[in-house]
Amino acid sequence: MITVAVADDQAVVRMGLKALLEREPDLRHVGEATDGAGALALLRRTRPDVLLLDIRMPGMDGLATLRAIAADAELSATRIVVVTTFAVDEYVFTALQAGASGFLLKDSAPEELVNAVRVVAAGEALLSPAITRKVIGLFGRHGAEPVLGLDTLTPRERELVAWVATGKSNEEIAKELVISPDTVRTHVSRAMVKLHARDRAQLVVFAMRAGLAV
């Protein structure tokens, strides 16, 4: 059972997400908040596996909430999926840097939202294809930045880090490269250790900063 909390200042959005979650047998809605301060209190009280978090909220917004969660070791186990109406490039990258594991638009199909919860709870990173293209395009224009530890990666590890940045799962990458998912998982895990990546989402950030692309 995957436990999920929701933080959004719009009642209709909270109601819709709760209804969506409650119809899935493996997901359990454990509470909701209307702002960042409420979200932090909710997380400390319920310790959910996943938090669906809005960016624009009154008082403490989603980005400030993400930073507060990242700074609190007791809350680090909760994975964050940012769900917003704003497809703004800077929001995406800032949210990923602050600790988000996924980023979806509110007009995403219900099955995409449900899949996002499951994927992120399993330790994967998730970005919608449209969002991924925007962020990669943004960093293509700004150029690569130094990433500590990048020179320690093998050519295969660099290649797979670049594939991770496309938003594809290990299974999808394995199909593209005609190798086993276990091989992908091994190389990605080694790259995460070498780059001191907190999770797969941070690996996406490093790949984009370094200008790695497939």
Shape: globular
Task: Give the SSE order as H and E letters.
Answer: EHEHEHEHEHEHHHHH
What percent of residues adopt helix (DSSP H or I)? 40-55%
Radius of gyration: 17 Å
Discrete helix count: 10
Residue stretches low in confidence (pLDDT < 50, at least 5 long) are: none
Q: How does the major sheet shape up? A: 6 strands, parallel
The total of beta strands comes to 6
Q: Mean pLDDT, nearest integer?
A: 85
Strand content: 5-15%
Distance between the termini: 36 Å
- The helix-and-strand class reads alpha/beta
Main-sheet strand order equals 2-1-3-4-5-6
Characteristics:
14% strand, alpha/beta, 214 residues, single chain
Structural description of this entry:
- Helix content is 52%, strand content 14%.
- With 214 residues, it is of the alpha/beta class.
- Strands 2-1-3-4-5-6 form a six-stranded parallel sheet, with helices on both faces.
- Helix 7 packs across helix 9.
- It starts with a strand and ends with a helix.
What is the fold's blueprint, element by element?
Layout: E1 2-7, H1 11-22, E2 27-33, H2 36-46, E3 50-53, H3 62-70, E4 79-84, H4 89-98, E5 102-105, H5 110-121, E6 126-127, H6 129-142, H7 155-164, H8 170-177, H9 181-195, H10 200-210
Brief digest:
The protein has 214 residues and is an alpha/beta fold.
